[in-house]
Amino acid sequence: MPESAPRIAVIGGGQLARMMAQPAIALGVPLRLLAEAEGVSAAQVIPDQLVGDYRDLATLRQVTDGCSVVTFDHEHVPTEHLHALEDAGVACRPGPEALVHAQDKIVMREAMTRLGAPQPRWAVVSSEGDVEEFGLPCVLKVSRGGYDGKGVWVVRTTEDIAEPLAASEAAGVRLLAEELVDFRRELSALVARAPSGQAAAYPVVASTQLDGICHEVIAPAPDLDPHRAAQAQQLALRVAGELGVTGVLAVELFETSEGEILVNELAMRPHNTGHWTQDGAVTSQFENHLRAVLDLPLGSPAPRATWTVMVNILGSADPEVGHLYDGYPHALARDPQLRVHLYGKDLRPGRKVGHVNAYGDDLEDVLERARHAAAWFRGDLGNDSD
Amino acid sequence: MPESAPRIAVIGGGQLARMMAQPAIALGVPLRLLAEAEGVSAAQVIPDQLVGDYRDLATLRQVTDGCSVVTFDHEHVPTEHLHALEDAGVACRPGPEALVHAQDKIVMREAMTRLGAPQPRWAVVSSEGDVEEFGLPCVLKVSRGGYDGKGVWVVRTTEDIAEPLAASEAAGVRLLAEELVDFRRELSALVARAPSGQAAAYPVVASTQLDGICHEVIAPAPDLDPHRAAQAQQLALRVAGELGVTGVLAVELFETSEGEILVNELAMRPHNTGHWTQDGAVTSQFENHLRAVLDLPLGSPAPRATWTVMVNILGSADPEVGHLYDGYPHALARDPQLRVHLYGKDLRPGRKVGHVNAYGDDLEDVLERARHAAAWFRGDLGNDSD
């Protein structure tokens, strides 16, 4: 690329960085990757790369040298390093003051309280007595370092409390207690926000989790009250603005049995609940993340189909399941409209190794196609078989 | 990628190879690139690469080592090298017997005659007398090595004949004379064909050339008689089958004032007249090229919008025009639905450096949006300004 296109440093070599590479190619914007190991998902597809530890400031300085901005595949870069990079003139997007709300669940809860955002009842706890006072059953979460269901416990009895307490102590992180919400389903409100303040809100989607891992997303969320959808979008835009988020922000929400929405989690990067946008929206979350990070005008978040369904492909526990590639002859022939996204990862039980998107006018048909394909790839057709 | 996904060698580091990288990322299929120089368009985005000369067999052997198939960004690899690679067990897709029809215009004309395909009157010529006997005015083309209008002359007088004759002699290639067709417009019928024989035909498009370079494509071709469109698709599928093409075949056609279609050129690779498919079709030509090359089931070639328009961005002759990136703030803000594809190339007058796609229901609107954006990027709003 000619010299005046800004170079973006991306910290972390997972599938989110991998999927940023596609719009970066189209936009003609060079990426420089800090990968945690050779050959990881994004390192397979981004030539300009360095292998190193994101917890090491010297490494971060090296990978951002000559880059005007840095963004992230994950939220684990230490806050003090981000401040050091900003002091050196590298724009961190999102910046450390925003990112801390995705890094630390207690900081996030405090911010939601400050903003008056609807959320479950919560408290910081540090003893069995604290938890009992908060009330059982409840959910305990380590404040930092949890992901995909790890570091989260549903505690129903006094005996359940010991493990989370020990884990938080061992990890040296605080423990958060949250009300166990009787939710009807999970929703996600995804927005992109540029440093200029310009923002775009994607349609609110419904997501299904299995064992704490995002499994299936329906865009838009079926039968969602339009006022509730607008409320969720406004909430996400307000959170993005108030916290100064740049790039993609995903606000994961509970929809309660009464139809209320409550903030569950925040993520400040392209998010699993936005993968449907690759094939289902005018501008994908990955492209809008890059545009936001570059402070370029954002692309339209409008849907391109009536319904788009994303289903994750998880590694199977069945040792008989061969290579994901072996799933192509049937999956592609069965559904010529299917969109497949594989991450270049080795199969391990329960590991996210790819996803499929399907779209169309008939939700039942779209769901069936996406579910069948994902089950086919993971070699587990279960009750979805045909 | 786990080890059983086949690796594809791609010969040539231009924008076509660059745009194959995006679906390769999604499919989880690794590419290995032979680039003609460091840092060329595709070399910026494909990590596994070798810099070398595609006319050197040892280099070709090196880049295809460990690859089950090889495909191409251009049609210039010598036929004898392709045979040598096939003898060594590397599947060339397209293979040498097919590719020669895209390499040698006389071989192509002979094949079209054999197939009974509609085409302009033609003859091989080697002297002024031959050309006069063929009849003036006519078009003279070097049989091999021409591209983007180079190696093509419209000759109207006896004096015009000397230059093409000298050029063909100097290059050591034969000269082809073709009837100067009074055409209404140019059409393109694009198909993908797998080694299994499975094939998919994209909607027939109308293309506009400027100085021999593809400038604008409208998909589908407006006001095209449906029977004529089907005839063009059937012709392209038949050519692909009869010549044994694997991958994408573009059949460039003249539509005459009488509404007949005549074969103008063949290209056996993703083609400029198919760039609209990146944003306007269910499966892009680049993805279907890779699927065909891998003998995987092809994706749907159906359009996703009523109209899609592609306009190329050409380098400006105006030295005041800055970097392409400078075009983003206005172009993206003006049209949040615009899709931009830049090639990472330095600006040179008349050089293809990118393209834009726009889509929608109103052709006039879509045309205006795409034309404005392309003109804006090249700093030349001319009569398209607003």
UniProtKB/TrEMBL annotation, chains A, B:
State the Gene Ontology BP annotations.
Answer: 'de novo' IMP biosynthetic process
Per UniProt, the keywords (alphabetical) are: ATP-binding, Ligase, Nucleotide-binding, Purine biosynthesis
Q: Which reaction does it catalyse?
A: 5-amino-1-(5-phospho-beta-D-ribosyl)imidazole + hydrogencarbonate + ATP = 5-carboxyamino-1-(5-phospho-D-ribosyl)imidazole + ADP + phosphate + 2 H(+)
Q: Where does ATP bind?
A: K105, K141, E178, E179, L180, V181, E186, N264, E265
Record-level Gene Ontology MF annotations: 5-(carboxyamino)imidazole ribonucleotide synthase activity; ATP binding; metal ion binding; phosphoribosylaminoimidazole carboxylase activity
GO CC annotation, single: cytosol
Which function does this protein serve?
Catalyzes the ATP-dependent conversion of 5-aminoimidazole ribonucleotide (AIR) and HCO(3)- to N5-carboxyaminoimidazole ribonucleotide (N5-CAIR). Catalyzes the ATP-dependent conversion of 5-aminoimidazole ribonucleotide (AIR) and HCO(3)(-) to N5-carboxyaminoimidazole ribonucleotide (N5-CAIR).
Subunit details: Homodimer.
Q: Which family does it belong to?
A: Belongs to the PurK/PurT family.
Recorded hits in HAMAP family, A to Z, give: PurK (MF_01928)
Protein name (database record): N5-carboxyaminoimidazole ribonucleotide synthase
What is the organism of origin for this protein?
Answer: Nocardioides humilatus
Instruction: Name the gene that codes for it.
Output: purK
